[in-house]
Amino acid sequence: MANAQSIGVCYGSNGNNLPPKADVVKLYQSNGITAMRIYGPNSAALTALKGTNIKLIMDVPNSDLASLASSSSAAASWVNKNVQAYYPSVSFRYIAVGNEVSGGDTSKILPAMKNIYSALLSAGLQNAIKVSTAVSTAVVGISYPPSKGAFSSSASSYMTSIVQYLAQIGAPLLANVYPYFSYVGNPGSISLDYALFTSPGTVVTDGSYKYQNLFDAIVDALYSAMEKVGGSNVGIVISESGWPSGGGNAATVSNAQRYNQNLINHVGKGTPKKSTPLETYIFAMFNENQKPTGIEQNWGLFNPNKQPVYSISFK
């Protein structure tokens, strides 16, 4: 079983009918959810988290990257206002400098990470709070078999230096891992059982490693990609993973319940390549009605009225 500490839930707030922040924090507590990710500093959420011991990933929104990359004083004031003002009452764990950053902004990730790290260092918080960035697994250009995992040529231009910096500061890479999208993109070559952790036996053999689920294969391809650029000691935190319960192909309540419960039960074992338990954040806490229609509105574990979409145990 996964250690209860290793399971968090992402708290997205793109809905106009979601509960007040303080009620959301209570919902985490009453369900035994011990970690949270928020996609930017929010004073009401941070205030509600004080004294709860809920571990937190807090994003630097992509829109802030340019200013933080170009100015160490902007980074210092960001850390002062959004981190130091709440520390240690809020249990910050990681600052995610950007989420799935793309295009020309990728060149701003590393300078922004360095400036945020320097600000944490000046505040004496560099050991307590780790600096990273959250990436889509699309940065991996070759993912099969997992041992051949390598960054795509476009991603390699910025990921190589990011991975080497993470190795230097002793921080993990945050990765958003979605077997759902791999499955719906290739239903002919990927079985639903392999995507849902329900395969009865080995599906992919890669040297001495045997893969019974797609999640492990995706994560190990990312480990392999990092190894090839000097990141063999860099860990991975699963900063998002989940399955939609409606609005698209294979998006059913029973598939979503099965995926997320199996994920929770699995990640404490690590992967075939690395047995280190994977700290994992499920996407997402709520169905969010201001996202695009279709699957995007249907990732939640809970409805906005705080009733579960399906039953799940975080223990």
Automatic annotation (TrEMBL):
UniProt GO MF annotations: glucan endo-1,3-beta-D-glucosidase activity
Example GO biological process: carbohydrate metabolic process
Pfam family, one: Glyco_hydro_17
SUPFAM superfamilies, per database record: (Trans)glycosidases
Keywords: Glycosidase, Hydrolase
DNA-binding listed as a keyword: no
Keyword Hydrolase carried by entry: yes
Family: Belongs to the glycosyl hydrolase 17 family.
Protein name per the record: Uncharacterized protein
Protein species of origin: Rhynchospora pubera
